[in-house]
Amino acid sequence: MPSFKAAVRGIVGTFFGIIALIIILGSFTVVNAGERGVVLTWGALSDKAYDEGLHFLLPIAQQVVKIDVTTQKLETTNSQAYSKDLQVVTVHSVLNWNIDPAAVNDVYRSMRGGADELDSRIVRPNLEVAIKQVVARYTAEELLVNRQKVQDEISEAVKSSVASNHALVTHYAMVDESFSDAFELAIERKQIAEQDALTAKNKLEQVKFEAEQRVAEAEAEARAIQIQAQAITQQGGQNYVQLKAVEKWNGVMPTYITSGSPLPFVNLTR
Question: Homologous superfamily of 72-179 in CATH?
Answer without folding.
Answer: Band 7 domain (3.30.479.30)
